[in-house]
Amino acid sequence: MKQLKLSRLFSLLLALTLALTPCLAGLAEEGNESQNSMDIVLRSGTEDGAGEGTGEGGSGADGGDQPTNVPVTGVTVSENAVTMWVGEDKSFGVTVSPEGATNKNWTSSTSNASIASLSGKSTIHAVAPGTAIITVTTEDGKKTATITVTVTQQVGEIRLSADKTTLKVGGTAKVTANVLPENASNKGVTFTSSHSTVATVDANGNVQAASAGTTTITATAADEKGAYGTITIKVEDMATGVTLSPTSKELKVNETAQLAASVLPATANQGIKFTSSDETVATVSETGLVTARKEGTAVITATAADGSGKSASCTIKVGATAVDVPVTGITLNHKKITIEVLKNTEQLEATVEPANATNKDVVFSSSNTNVAVVSNTGLVTAINNGTATITVTSKENPSIMAKCLVKVGAPVLVTDVTVQPTELNLKTDGTYQLSVSVLPSNADERGVTFESSNTAVATVSASGLITAKGPGSATITVTAKDSSGKKATCTVTVTQPVKGVTVSPSSVVIQKDNVQKLTASVVPENATNKKLIYKSSNETVAVVSNDGIITARSEGWATITVCSEENQAIYGTCTVKVGLPVYVTKITLDTTNVTMWAGATRQLGVSIEPANADIKTVTYGSSNPDVATVSSNGLITAKKKGTATITVTATDGSGKSASCAVIVKQPVTGIQITPNGFTLVKGDVKDLKANVSPADADNPDVIWTSSNTNIAAVSSKGQVTAVNEGSCVITATCKDNASISASCTIVVGTPVASVALAPNRASMNTGETILITASVLPTNASNKGIIWSWESKDGASIILTNGAVKAMKAGTVTVTAKAADNNNNGAQATCIITISGDPIATPTPTPAPTVTPTPGPTGGIWCRVNTEKGALNVRDKIGGAVIDKIPEKGTFLVVNWGTTWCQVYYNGRYGYVMTKFVQKISSEPTAAPTPAPTAPMGQTAQVNTAKGALNMRDKIGGAVIAKIPEKAFFIVTEYGATWCKAWYDGKTGYVMTKFVKLTGGSMPTPTPVPTPEPIIDYARVTTANGGLNLRDAINGTRIAVIPQGATVSVHSKGADWCRVSYSGKTGYVMTKFLTFGSAAPTETPIPAPEVVISYARVNTVTGGLNLRETPNGTRIAVIPQNAVIGVITKGADWSRVKYGDKVGYVMTKFLADTTATPAPSTPAPGNTLQCYGKVTTANGGGLNMRSGPATTYGRIASIKNGGVVEVYDKGAVWSRIKYNGTFGYVMSQYLTFSAERPSENPDPVIPSGAKAQVTTTAGSLNMRAGMGTTYALIGKIPQKAYVEVLTYGPSWCYVSYNGLKGYVMTTYLTMIN
Prior knowledge:
Radius of gyration: 43 Å
Strand order of the largest sheet: 86-85-84-81-87
Number of strands: 122
Helix content: under 10%
């Protein structure tokens, strides 16, 4: 008996070990791409950080052999009645009697799975409120026991609202609680007040205001499951009085005065309403700025806005004398004139600025009255030969003047105008700069004008640059600007080159001795030379006449090529078959319906049957091109929201077609948060709004996160609650696209209530400087930063820097100081400055290069350098080169905060500094970051030297200040016959014209670098086993698996989920699997992108063009004929090019220059068969075929071991293949490649209705709804049971057992017949 017990114990331990083996295997990473291992990974992906742990052999117990059969007499459960919350899981115990029963197996079932379901045999899962019965039934004897399950719904959320959130002392409000969900079993709540001295609340939500302050009313769910809601109530004292300063003021017409008002006590609402007793005498603004309008008396009243009726007043007396408007400038209608003696006069006209100047009187004078005199009205009369200067001066301010140089005597007119060349031939879109000479060199006026006789053929700029527009002839006339009438002409002949040849039809089938007419034409239609040349590749099969008539001679194939006479490298073709036609019988698409985002593209896959059809070409059409377009090769482009049908039609005349329904959705393209940045008091609540663009986006939902929930928390609806003093960043992220987000900075502390300026009015002379001091109240405000601005309505100007004002031009200026905390719509104050005197010239900034400006950050933390001594280095990357230095105690903006390094924005660019030298400050510095420079106007040009760089000199013929590399682009700002003024790499200088090739357009602009998401911390992945799933949204699709122990960048932190970045991808992971405070990961330098300098079209005679890794190297792609590609470098034999996302080398002779640019989407992979592959998996299972080259792409098929596939793109890791007419990707290591198609391993011949026996090692075999462990489990087949095999497969069989049909793994079956 003892030996029998030991034998049974050993059998049970063996069964337990075998049952656990597939569970442990489920924890492994996806080390290969075979089907069985992939099934394990898919199961482990069901939870974040843990595997599923259920093998495919089932989990039933192995009863073993018993010497005698002991029947079951009864069964009991651990609890006969349980009460559970929705979502709760509860396990129960089962006891089968007697203890020594031979078969103690049992099953469990539920009377209502929509209320209580079973997870496994002995775990109850509460689904919805209600009652259900769980029944346990023994396999032997069918004995039963029951459990009555009562499921209750807990409260998930409480939303509070109030009829009033701001009360006066003694006032009341009603708080209402909306308890969710609606079917919660207990909707009772308990109300409490955080500050009962401010306001109390009773059990029904009635609030009674007691004293000034702020309190939070909280409603807590009575079911004690932790749900609660809050609302903030503010209590204010009633105003007891209003102070107003001054109480009286005397003004002159147009003068202004700023009144200062406040409400008593300070805890009352500080709102003030200003009114005037007579607005014809004096008006007052909302901020208390009084403006005198006419002589008289008016009373300005400041009244408390809280309804208390408290007020104060100021008496304004306006005097009769108006304020003078000074003269700021004078201009003349001529700066230089020529008059003949005693014959001519010239009228000068003076314009006084501003237009409303009080005294516009001027005085004219001549520097030499023997030469010319001038009247009081500005009429100049010539007296004697010579020169004189006429000056006009302001009578009010003699220092304001303008001058005109007068020459008296016979004018020196232009005697000759010549232009080079006099004849010019150009092609459409070509340009040429004319060279003009004017004689004599001392002519009074040497300027010329340019005019084209036919702008449809050629246009000419004011500087003489000719641009060819269309074929034809035009005459460019150059005319002297003076009265000489001298002219010169240049005849321009423009030709339109051939850019393409179209041939219709592109393929044809003709029976012997029949003829077919081709229709061919050049592109564009207005090409100058439209002549074509026809050729046949096989005249024994078909010949073609000069007018395009094909004559069939004998059966076979031939290609008719139609070339442009102008350029035989430009051609079209028609494929000819002589013999009986084989028509298309069926067109199959890879999908019949697809949903796309607007702006996205998708390549439509097309299969033609039969394989030997003569003409396999198809045409594509869209029923609604406004919604979706389709290219000639089947690339669908989603345009805008709506539906369209893409139809694919055979061109062989068979009439066969297929269609695909396209639904286009509008994605979110931008988010804007309002309000954007403000200050809150601890306990305050503020609602943010995320404005999503465009307005018709299909999913406008956003995810709200806080960079520091200890400072401010944000709800899923955007409601911000101030928790503790400090600052943090609130971010709204698009739910469908995590790369689209917006942020705003929240400061928790004391907001600014008012701003005052001293002085609030000043008078200055031009050139003088004063300092305006801004005072912020209250003095303990958290953010005392000031934003300065100024405006003038009469042309006055100043230079304003942090309150320091330098007067530049006379007039009136209003300087405004606004609180930077943006609270209460921004408290502000103004200072009115009156400026007199001569204007001071403002320095002109040096022209700067055309670059994409570095975008300033939309959020961040203002900080100060905290070194013990000296400046702080700014580096180009973590631990990289020093690119700038921030002075000791200098301020800058931190946009990404890390434990060791911070990313900062300083002096107009981004960089990295060490965190230990960074000190946070409470307010933003008033100096804004320096804006990125703007580019000089001009034309783009390219260095055109025969060899080497082009010298740039500091002046014409001067010293060399830079060298522009061969073929490099630069900007020409002034074009001359011998020298050009140019800009390159931040420098302006002169280059020789003969080495300049004008290209037109603008400088190539680098792709802007997006502003990185703020990093608040780093964390290490600490899962119990395996990797951690990175998802595109909370509970969204898995986009990557982060290895255990890896370090991630944390952008926002929540109780359950965190937003992180890892290996170039950003998404969400579960917080519980992260350990925070890790060091920043080492940064890998990103290589600089290669720049495309031009574009070219593939111009092969037949077929595509090979793209290789190196000249004569391995082929990496095949570029289709006529495709447009980017050229990086161009050589005599080989050129480095970019096609889609691939860069490599092609032979230069097969490229034709073009002005076209490639489509923005990545081209479809090549469709040229390279070789064959035979599946050879290690475990004999199937091989997964995926929709993309990574295990994160969906599985679209399983290829049996020994199956043969066609290989179209062989790669080191992944290969693009075709299997059963479908394209996809498999791991290359599981393929054996061969040039010839190998034989495929045959499937075993299993007759219909064959029998098989279950041979598991773990008790029972799982039956599933489909071929894969991701399909639902629909039953379990006992070990050694017999099944009927309906369909046999190498990995899965479709079987029937006890009337139930489903799929089981073939490896656990032993065939009987």
